[in-house]
Amino acid sequence: MTVKVLAFDLDGTLLRKDKTVDPRTADAIHRAMDVGMHIVLATGRDRAGCEFVYKPLGLEEGENYLALVNGQILYDFAKKEYDVDDVLTPEDSVKIQNVCRKYGVEGIFCCGYDFYSYLTTPGRVRKQLRRIITGEPGDYGLKAASDVRTFANLPSKGKVITKDINKVCMIHSPKFFEKNLPKLREELKDYDLLMVGKDWLEIMPRGVSKASGLQKVAERVGCTMEEVMAFGDAENDIPMLQEAGIGVAMGNAMETAKEAASYVTDTNENNGIGKTIDLVLAGREDELRRKKQNRGSGA
Prior knowledge:
Layout: E1 5-8, H1 23-34, E2 38-42, H2 51-57, E3 65-68, E4 73-76, E5 81-84, H3 90-103, E6 106-111, E7 114-118, H4 121-134, E8 150-153, E9 167-171, H5 174-187, E10 191-197, E11 200-205, H6 210-221, E12 228-232, H7 238-243, E13 246-249, H8 255-260, E14 263-264, H9 272-281, H10 286-289
Parallel strand pairs: 1-2, 1-12, 2-3, 7-8, 12-13, 13-14
Antiparallel strand pairs: 3-4, 4-5, 6-7, 6-9, 9-11, 10-11
Helix pairs in contact: 1-9
């Protein structure tokens, strides 16, 4: 057995639809920790947003990590310290707001625990009507899990954001992204654009990814990326699925994530992670490294 690090995306991967971890999956993770594996939660969330996951799993004990904001921020539980990669600048905020205005899409600028929503006036009216009809929160739940978070609206004419920007979320309908994603990629070609849901796109500084965060973890624990096994389901997981020695896509993953992986397991609702860890612990990890031969039903 050569796997030293297990890395998990959260939403759609480690978490089920009800935002809980399957007890069978948690048990498999604990057994992996018992034989010395290091655990990394590799997520687009910030630390407060994944506390409900790492505390029950006991990740604060031992040499485990959080690769937050798509790998931009690394948190080391053992040393209790952060390592921050590149961020977006005030100039980037202007450019991205201009694109949001042009396409009528909402842009949420994530600055630590502060979130700033840019939307044109007509778009703001449509959002308010949709919120009334559907009952969905205007902040998309981004303020949840912490009393120190803020969610504020930017003026429709735009505003330069002088704080460090971790990432920008673009939110619109699935049909909008199906039609306009190629245009957005061209308009914003200086950044990495990642679809994390049918109606949710994230903009990151180029080259900052969950893979770059895992590279740092591998260096800290003294292993190579070949000894890392990563699990994911969306476009922001693709770099780590490609660069990890074993990249595992969930059965419910986007097709692009499945294509990037070396193995496709069962879904997040049916203990896909636990089944795959069991293969490793049983000495069958070579089966997971065979590119695209084992894709399908999973273990």
